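Exercise 7. Predict the joint structure of the components listed below.
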Amino acid sequence: MKKILLPAIVIISAIIILIRLFYLQIIDDSLKIKSDNNAIKIAYDFPERGYIYDRNSKLLVANQPSYDIMVIPREIKELDTVELCQLLKIDTDYFKKKIEKAIVYSPRLPSVFLPQLTKLEYAAFQEKIRKFKGFYIQKRFLRDYQIDYAPNVFGYIKQVNEAQINKNPYYKSGDLIGVQGVEQEYEEILRGVKGVKYFQKDRFNRIIGSYKDGKYDTIPIQGRDLTLTIDAELQKYGEELMINKRGGIVAIEPKTGEILALISAPSYDPALLVGKDRSKNYTMLYYDSIAKPLYDRSLLAEYPPGSPFKILTGLIGLQEEVIDENTGFICRHGFSYGRGAFMKCHDSGTSILHNGIYNSCNTYFANVFKRTIDKYKDPSYSVDNWNRHLQSFGLGNYLGYDLPIGRKGRIPSSSLYEKFYPNGGWRSNTIISNSIGQGEIDVTPMQLANMMAAVANEGYYYTPHIVKKIKNFEIDKKFTTRHQTSVDKQYFKPVIEGLYDVYNIGTARTLKVEGLAICGKTGTAENFMKIGGKRTQLQDHSIFVAFAPKDNPKIAIAVLVENGYWGNRWAGPIATLMIEKYIRGEISRIDLEQKMLKGSLQSEYAKYVSGKPFSINH
Amino acid sequence: MKNQSVIANIDWITILIYITLVIMGWMNIYSASLPLEETYILDTSQIYGRQLLFILLAIPIILIILNINAKIFEKFSVIFYIIGILLLLGLFVFGTSVKGQTNWYKIGGFGFQPSEIVKISCSLLLAKYLSDAQINLKVRKFQYIAIGIIMVPVGLILLQPDAGSAMIFLALIFVLNRDGLPSWYLWTGVTAIAVFLLALFVKPVFLVSFILVFMIIHFILNSKISRNPIIYVLLFILITGFTLSVDYVYENVLEPHQKDRIDVLFNDNVDMKNEGYNLNQSMITIGSGGLYGKGYLEGTQTKGNFVPEQHTDYIFTTVGEEWGFVGSFVVIALFVTLILRIIKLAENQKTKFSRVYGYCVATILFTHFFVNITMLIKLFPTIGVPLPFFSYGGSSLWSFTVLLFVFIKLDANKVNEW
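Solution:
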C-alpha cells in the first residue's frame, strides 16, 4: 500500500493537470479571445474618399484631413482628467459622458472621444498624447466642398451609428458613411476600402512589431472619383432663382437621361454638415419643420400635375385613335359631365388638338379623355389601358434613378375605382378630372421632367441618372437602356407643335426667348395643408414643364414653385431662364431675371403659419 | 571488477528523458527571451545564451559524477549535510535579498541558491540514516531524528523566508512514509492543509459541524477497535481550534502577497491588473494555445512579454501557448515517465541507501513539477518553484542534474553491490 502511494499520486496529479489543460486550451475559448485582445492591435488606414466632379470636370467635392481623438477605455491609465479637459477645451461632464458611452460600446475597442479636430488643435494634443494612455489620434478624411450649393445632390457623410455597425461588419465605431444623395448611393465606390494593420503589442501596450510579419495586413484601396451629370453652373443658377421660394427643379438631357440639375429650395451650404458643427447644424435644419430644407422637393414632392398632364391625355387619344389632330370639340367655357357637374374652362369656341394645347382648353381634353375611356365597353379595361400608357412614360412608379430617395407618385388603375365604387356604376365622366391632371393623379418633379424628356425624344427615354462616369468602373447598364413609350413616334409631332405655340401664341407667350424654340406647358396644382386640424386650401403651386430646342432637344425641365399660383407666374419664367442659361450660356431678358432672382414668396408662406385667416389665388 | 560496467548499466531511458527535457527547456527559454534585435545563439548577454552555457557546463558535472566512487555519496553524506546547513546559515550574513527573500549568494555575476544544494545533501543524509539496519521508523526516537533531518533545513528556509523551497522539503515526508513512518503523520499534514484551505471559503460553523458529524460516524463505525472517547474529544477541540484560528492566521500571520496568492485562487473578483495579473496572463497564455499551439516562436503572449519572468517559473506557459495541448501533453508525459522510472529503479535497488535516495529524487522532482504547473493553471496557490530542467538558471539546472545523476550513478553501480 505504502509502496504504490507515490506512483498513484503522480499519475492522478498528471491526469488532473491534463484535464485542466484540456479545458483551458481546447474547451474554453474565452482565453484565446483575451489573448488576441491582449497582444494584437488593429490600426486602420482610411483611404481618401473619391472626389466628385460635375459634367464639365469642374471639381465639386474634395477632401480635407480631420483628426479624431479615439479612446480605448480599458487602456486608460493614471489620467490627469483636468489637464486633458483643459487641453481639449471640454468640460469634465463631457469627459465622463463620453467615457461611459465608450465603455458601453466596448471597453477594449476604440470609440470616438472627440471628433474632428482642426490641424492646430491636433498639433497641440499630439505633443502631449504620451501622457494620456488609452487615447490616440485617428486620421480620417472629411469633405471639402468647393461649391456652396447642391446639398441634396451630394448628401453628406457622418459617423456610423450602432445599427449600421451591426448591419455591416465593415464599419467600426467612428467610421464615416455617406447619407443621402450620391454619397449614400455610391458609398462603396466613393469610400474605397480601409487598410488594416495588425501589430504585436507587449504587456505595456507598446507596439513591438507587426503581427505574423504582416500576413493579415491589407493596404487601403482608394475611393473612386465620380463624375456627375450635373451642370454645376446650371445647378447654381437654378438655386439662385429659387431663393426665397420653395419648390423643386429637375432638368434632364433627353438624349441620355442625364440629370443636368436637381434643385430643391430652400437650399443650404453643404459645408454646414462638415466638421465639429455638423450635428448642431443638422439639428437646426432637421427641426425647421416649416421650410423643410432637408426635404428634397425635386424627388419627394407629389402633386397633381394639372395642365402639363394634358400632353399625355392628347398623346393617348391619338395613339388610341379616338381622335386625330383635326378632331374638334366645342367649348362653352366648360365641360358638362353630368347633372350639375361642370368643369370650368377659360376658353371658348371650337378647339382642335393644336389650339387645345396652347390654350390649355379643359373642355377639349375632357372630351378626349371621355372618348379614350369610352372606347371599350368596360371602363376598368379602359382605365388599365390608359394606366399602361402612362406607366410607359415613367409615371406611377419609381423611376430607378441612382439616388436613394424617391416617391412613386400615383396613377389610378381600375382597382382603385372598384374600391371607391364597390357596386360599380363608375364611368368616364366619374373620373373626368384625370383628363386635366387632377383627380387621382400625383407626380413628382422628377417624373414630370422625365415625361418631358420622353416627349422631346418623341417616344423614348433613358432612366434619369446623376452619375456620368466612375473612374475605372462601368456605370449601371440600365442607364443606357432605352425605354420606349407605348405612344408611337408619329403622334408626337402635332403635340410638340402645340407645345411650341404655347410660347408663340399660348399661355406662355410672355416668356418668349428670341430665336430659341422652346416647347412647354404651364400648370397649376391645388394643394392643401392641415392648419389647426382643418384641411385648408393653400395658394396653388406654380408648375411648368418644357424642353428645348424644339429640334434636337438638349434639355427637358420641370419646375415646381410651391404656392406660386399659376404656372406662368413663377415656374414658367424660371424654367425658360434655366433653358436659356443652359443653351445660350447667357440671359437676354435681364428684367425678367432680376424679377425672378429678387422675387420672394416668403410673405405668402408666412401667411399659413401666422395663425390668422388668409385668402389665396388672387 | 569494481566500477567496470558502470557505463553499460546506466539507465539510458532516464538519461534520454533528461536530455529531451533540457533541450525542450532551452528551446522555450529561447522563445521566451528572444529580443527584438538580431542576436546569435551563443550571445551570453542574452538569457538563452547563458542557459546554453549552463547546459554545456552540466556535461563535465555529469561526467565527474559518473566517474567518481559511488561510495563517496554515502560516506560523506553527513559532511555534505553540515556544509549545506552552514550555507543556509551563512545566508543570514552574506545572502542577497531578492524580492524580500534572502535566499541567494551572489558571487560576481553568478548567483546560487543554497537550498537547491541542500535538497541533495538532505536526501543523502536521509538515505544514509534510514539505511542503518537498526533504524525503525515505528519507534518514536527514530521518527523524531528522521523528521528532524528534514525540519532543520525547512526551519532555516522558512526564515529566509522561502515558502516554496520549504514545501519541497516537507514533501520528503513521503519518503519516510514509504519507509515505515506511521501513516497518520502524512494524513495529519494533508488534513491540516485541506482544513486550512476549506476554512478560507467555508464558514467555520459549517466546517466544525461537518467535522463533528464525521468524527461521530468514525467513532461509531470504529466500535470494534479499542476507542478512547477522551482522545476523540481532544482531537475535536484541536481541529475546531485550528479551524477557528485559520481566519486569524490568514489575516495576521500571512504576508499581503501570500494572502493575494490565496485570494486569486478562490476569488474571481480580483484586480487583473495587480495581484491577479500573473495568474490571469499565465492562464491566457496557456489557454490560447489550443490543440496544436500557435507555433514555435509565434506565441503572441510570449512575444509581448505578457507573463513576467516567463523564462523562469512560468516557462511552461510558453509550452502551452506555442506547442498547444499536444506539446503540453508530451512534456507532462515525459515528467511522469521520468518520475515513475526513478521510483521503479529505486524499488529495484539492492541497498537501502540507494533506494531511499532514489525515492527522495522522485519526490523532489514530482513536487517541483506539480507545484510549478498547477500554480500556472489556477489549481494551486502561486508558489515560486522552478520546473526541473526547464526553467532558466544555472544553479537550478546543475543541482537538479547532480540530484538526478547521483542516483543514476548509484543505480548503475548496483551490479557492484553485494
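Discussion. The CA atoms of residues 296 and 322 of chain B lie 5 Å apart.
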